[in-house]
Amino acid sequence: MCIRDSEDAVRHLLSVTSSLDSLVVGEAQIVGQVKDSYKLACAAKTTGKVLNRLFHCAFASSKKVHTTTSIASGRVSVAGVAVELAMQLFADISSAKAVVIGAGDTGQLIVQHLLQAGARAITIVNRSYDRGLSVARQYGIDARKWEQLDEQLAGANIVIAAASVQDYLFRKDSFKRIMDRREQGNLLIVDIAVPRNFEPAVNELDGLYLYSVDDLSAVVEQNRKARERDMTRGMEIVLESVTEFMEWFGAKDIGPLIGRMKEQFAQIARNEMDRFFVGVREEASCKDVMEDMVNRVVNKLLHCVIKNVDTVARENGATEAAKLVDSIVRQAEEITSESGGKEKVES
């Protein structure tokens, strides 16, 4: 398990939420998953001021990354580009019947991309029916036995093949028989298997468009280069947000510390007034005037101190400013304790 803390933890959460640290960079579902986790934490009352601020900072960063860059567009995997191609050729992919051949890692990635694109009628066909059924149940799609593959292809609009085989699953002649059975319109076949599942000559059949992994690789490379530029900009946005959060985190205690400092300075003034106005001076007519004067002096001194704190915060960061105020508060508390414990000045 990797454990992160302090600024590293903040940077990790923001980059993950912005989908810059994901298997599929730019995946929009990531921020939804983080929001769901945050809602659970809120319901369990395990968040507080700092975590609430941190997660909302993460959500704002994610929104900025996705709205100011193109990181969520342009697939960077062959499986993603295959589905992107299907989306271009089918105006309403939700009504298209898609068949995925192969239930391995690539097959599952295809299913994920299809679901994200809005496809609803998805069937997976795998040599091991149990394996295919397991994947189907995981993603809420249909599964069919290997012996039913021809039947499924005859009724499909989109076929994406990623089966691990040593020879072609279909050659031109065998696939022509499937095409002759079709009552549907055009068929899109995207063969991303290595080695290929479909003989290249299959593309010569009417009403069929066959794309191979070689056809998609150039698109993948173009998308990857564009994505790299977006990732750089995205990380700049994240790092800016990390800096802002760390500044807030360092400064979150300054306000209360400033309040304590004012309180201690005022207490020192009261202690000195009490020590002075004793005996015959206790009823002196100038007492109220002197009290006002002392308070004005204390407030002016406080103003000078606070200005210096602001300078330290601006030049060295909020954390250093908080340390300075904390040090002043501690010294003022010592003075308050000393002045409060000494004997009063008699006339």
Description:
By secondary structure, the protein is an alpha/beta fold. It has helices spanning 6-17, 29-43, 49-68, 78-89, 105-117, 129-139, 149-154, 172-181, 213-251, 254-276, 287-316, 318-341, and strands spanning 97-101, 121-125, 142-144, 158-161, 187-191, 208-212. Strands 3-2-1-4-5-6 form a 6-stranded parallel beta sheet. The radius of gyration is 35 Å and the shape is rod-shaped. The termini are far apart.
For this entry, give a set of tags.
single chain, 347 residues, alpha/beta, six-stranded parallel β-sheet, 8% strand
Give the gist of this structure.
The protein has 347 residues and is α/β, with parallel strands linked by helices. The protein has helices at residues 6-17, 29-43, 49-68, 78-89, 105-117, 129-139, 149-154, 172-181, 213-251, 254-276, 287-316, 318-341; strands at 97-101, 121-125, 142-144, 158-161, 187-191, 208-212. The chain has a 6-stranded parallel sheet with strand order 3-2-1-4-5-6.
